[in-house]
Design brief:
By secondary structure, the protein is mainly alpha-helical. It has two domains: 78 residues, no CATH class; 63 residues, no CATH class. It has nine helices and five strands. It has a three-stranded antiparallel β-sheet. A two-stranded antiparallel ribbon has the order 4-5. Helix 3 packs across helix 9 and helix 5 crosses helix 6. Bound molecules: iron/sulfur cluster (2 copies).
Length: 183
């Protein structure tokens, strides 16, 4: 395990150095807005591939320690884009016609982009996804920290720093890993 410790708060999930308290991270997003902006700019001259390698290890550690079924905050807050193929899959998962699935659960933009028509998502129940095996690729991929491009995507990632405990913890560890703040 990485040696990441916070001296503060309200730890809900093991290991005890991971913070998953949603109220706390929402407050931190406001408190650390300026610091996060400086962190983003501090990465400008760092090697993107090295940052990705570090971020992937950190993300693996953090993701393994956070139970998304005890959170569900992304399902509460995000617009979920859905491909046409996934609409067909959703109909199959629910055992209804594609037309009915569209009518009940999907909105389509003028440009033909589909998305789940409610926030929180229809399929969230008691912090758990009721179509988990058939959930959409956007749900599977969020918060995208397993992908290449940590540096390029950090500005977008920080938009959800106060929403997603995985992002919050990964960003805080990365600040220490790159020497932006002291361990
Ligand atoms: S489909 Fe499931 S995982 Fe995706 S947003 Fe809805 S509840 Fe969350
Ligand atoms: S991806 Fe983030 S916001 Fe979504 S359930 Fe997991 S920890 Fe919570």
């Amino acid at each position: 395990m990485f040696s990441y410790t916070f001296a503060t708060q309200n730890f809900k999930l093991p290991p005890p150095n991971i913070i998953a308290d949603l109220e706390f991270i929402a407050a931190q997003a406001e408190e650390k807005a300026e610091e996060n902006d400086h962190f983003l700019r501090s990465l400008r001259n760092l090697d993107a591939a090295e940052l990705d390698a570090t971020a992937h290890v950190v993300n693996d550690e953090v993701s393994a320690a956070i139970d998304c079924t005890e959170c569900g905050n992304c399902c509460n807050k995000l617009v979920i884009n859905v491909t046409q193929t996934e609409v067909t899959g959703l109909a199959g998962t629910l055992g209804i016609s594609e037309q009915k699935a569209r009518e009940l659960y999907i909105e389509e933009s003028m440009g033909g982009n589909c998305f789940v028509n409610t926030i929180p998502c229809h399929f969230l129940s008691d912090k758990k996804c009721t179509i988990y095996a058939g959930r959409f690729s956007e749900c599977r991929d969020f918060p995208h920290l397993h992908k290449p491009g940590f540096k390029a995507r950090l500005a977008g990632t920080l938009n959800y720093y106060g929403t997603c405990p995985i992002i919050y913890n990964v960003v805080e560890v990365m600040k220490r890993k790159v020497g932006f703040i002291d361990p």
